[in-house]
Design goal:
Mean pLDDT: 74
Structural class: mainly alpha
Strand content: 5-15%
Oligomer: single chain
Order of helices and strands: HHHHHHEEHHHHEHEHEEEHEEE
Radius of gyration: 50 Å
Shape: elongated
Number of strands: 10
Low-confidence stretches: 364-432, 478-488
Helix content: 40-55%
Strand order of the largest sheet: 4-3-8
Length: 497
């Protein structure tokens, strides 16, 4: 198999002995006119030759008539391509190279070098007189040296920018000539862009295109082929790392990459594909529905990547997701049940605390006062102050117009036991150790809850509404009227209170 790369350094192998003379301005003008005349005459001759070929194609079309004129023109212009295959070096090639190098080494410095064609007859006579064993002994080292030389010449990197410039120029000229001929023979549209990848190189962006290829770039992309070549050169020299980006662009790119990565990791633990990721109310939208939790969150706050402005934090988050350190995990049936029970108790305690803050009565409060609300029926005594008194408008110590007094508990439960169910007390939720989002040290992170809309009467104490009462004469009276001698409660008429 043919090799495509090599580790050998590039070395010079040609010796140029031609003498160069510095031309004057007049000599340069004469050469310029000479080359201009040559190009014009050559173009005219080439066009005349094409006209002759086109005329012959028309004659073939008229004679045979099976194909179009363009088909016969292509048939006439078709020719064999240049051979690209190469054979392995032979012992004869190695022998000639070795002897030519030996002859040139004996020549005095500065004298013209001897070419292989100048001494090939003498070398052939010597080669024909050798035996097979002598040929192998003479060329064993030379064959290996020739193979390394071919590999170096074809694949080794240029270490001199000028040599690279000449190599690129001549090779691209050959490619342009072959592409132009290919377009003339077959009608194939060609676009070739060649740019340097190092600032040490001297080559400018090289562009070759046929007419329709240039029209395609202009019509579809709204730019010229030369603009594409210049941008490609800038990209190849600077590379992806050298593209100028602002801090904002880098942060936005990281946020986008992290969001896409999180959605990509979802199906690994979820039973079905999730259309989006929820950060607020993660327990309600993700854990409760998909039965999965998030482990090893690297940051101290659990939020969407869009709310993170630090580039370093975004980089850490992206690396942990990409490496798999931060991941989703599916809960087992036992863990899921424990988490659901814990979540229910936390919600119940939260509701109890909200009722306490608002001053609402608690259904668990079965006593009017935890200190003196114990019935005295055990000792057989009763309190005289608990009798009905219409003169002072009270019933069992409760002002008229108030709510119905609670029933006194007759249970024999000790006071220290009843105090556990006093109004405002909270039940402590079970600790199951199941957190929906955990940090790298195993501690849970508080999941942000979406704030509900505040009520208009927040902070105002709620209670029964006082309604006006009517007396026998039909006039409306109130329990708080200053002139009234008697007062009626909310639930009785004045004559029956």
């Amino acid at each position: 198999m043919r090799r495509l790369t090599t580790n050998q350094p590039r070395k010079p192998w040609c010796q140029h002995t031609r003498t160069w003379y510095k031309l004057s301005a007049a000599d340069k003008a004469v050469l310029k006119d000479k080359w201009l005349t040559h190009r014009v005459s050559y173009a005219q001759a080439l066009q005349e030759a094409r006209n002759v070929v086109n005329k012959q194609a028309k004659l073939l079309h008229k004679r045979f008539g099976k194909h179009s004129v363009e088909y016969y023109f292509g048939e006439l212009m078709q020719r064999a391509r240049a051979a690209q295959s190469s054979r392995s070096p032979t012992r004869w090639n190695a022998f000639v190279r070795k002897e030519v190098k030996h002859i040139n080494a004996e020549h005095p410095s500065g004298s013209p070098s001897v070419k292989a064609s100048q001494c090939v007859k003498e070398l052939a006579s010597r080669w024909n007189n050798m035996t097979k064993a002598a040929e192998e002994e003479e060329t064993n080292d030379a064959v290996q040296s020739l193979e390394e030389f071919r590999e170096m010449k074809n694949l080794a990197l240029h270490n001199v920018p000028l040599n690279a410039f000449q190599d690129v120029r001549k090779t691209l000229e050959t490619l342009d000539r072959e592409a132009r001929s290919l377009n003339a023979r077959t009608g194939v549209e060609v676009l070739i862009i060649a740019t340097r990848s190092n600032l040490d190189h001297f080559n400018q962006p090289h562009l070759f295109h046929t007419q329709r290829a240039a029209d395609f770039l202009d019509a579809c992309y709204g730019t010229s082929a030369m603009d594409v070549a210049l941008r490609m050169e800038a990209f190849c020299i600077a590379g992806v790392q050298g593209v100028v980006k602002t801090h904002l662009q880098e942060v936005l790119a990281l946020k986008k990459a992290i969001s896409a990565l999180i959605l990509q990791k979802h199906p690994e633990a979820a039973p079905f594909k999730v259309p989006r990721m929820y950060y607020q109310n993660f327990d309600s939208y993700i854990t409760a529905k998909l039965h999965i939790i998030l482990e090893n969150w690297p940051l101290s706050k659990f939020c969407t990547p869009g709310d993170i402005s630090s580039q370093s934090e975004l980089t850490v988050l992206h690396n942990t997701w990409e490496s798999g350190a931060t991941h989703f995990r599916k809960l087992t049936e036992t863990k899921l049940k424990d988490w659901e029970d814990q979540r229910f108790e936390e919600a119940l305690n939260s509701c109890t605390g909200d009722r306490d803050k608002a001053g609402l009565p608690n259904s668990n409060d079965n006593t009017s006062n935890s200190d003196n609300g114990i019935s005295n029926s055990d000792n057989g005594t009763s309190n005289d102050n608990d009798t009905s008194n219409s003169d002072n408008g009270t019933f069992n110590g409760v002002p008229s117009g108030g709510i119905t007094p609670p029933t006194t508990s007759t249970s024999a439960t000790p006071p220290e036991t009843q105090a556990q169910f006093h109004l405002g007390s909270k039940r402590k939720a079970r600790t199951t150790g199941v957190s929906t989002v955990t940090m790298t040290n195993g501690n849970g992170i508080a999941v942000e809850k979406r704030a509900c809309k505040e009520q208009s009467d927040k902070g105002q104490k709620r209670g029964p509404h006082k309604k006006p009462h009517t007396n026998d004469s039909g006039s409306a009276t109130s329990a708080n009227d200053s002139g009234s001698t008697t007062s009626a409660c909310q639930f009785c008429t004045p004559d029956k209170c």
